[in-house]
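Lab notebook: predicted structure, single chain.

Context: the supervisor wants predicted structures on file for every construct in the current expression panel, including those that have not yet been purified. This is the next one on the list. No modifications to the sequence; it matches the entry in the shared construct table.
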Amino acid sequence: MNHNVGLAYRARKVTVGTELTLTDLRNGKVFLVILAQDASDLTKKKVHDKGKFYNVEIIESLTSLEISQAIGKKDIKVIGITDRGFSQLLMNEKRK
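Prediction complete. Output recorded below exactly as produced.
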């Protein structure tokens, strides 16, 4: 999964950070949210509430370190996938 997250990031199909991801979620630009397992309870609640409201799936199978390494940044807890194809790819990968 990390490889495809990195690929989506390099293709510029990712929003990085909680607030930016939630803003794009509200605007209908995000098709999938990847939330770090080790994010704070407040962040998890905020992201899950918005995801449920806007009917966007949330994957919580990576740690902050794994997400950060995949996109080459530090201490990232939330990213949004803004491409339908990449979101399908990541959801299918998670189900395997």
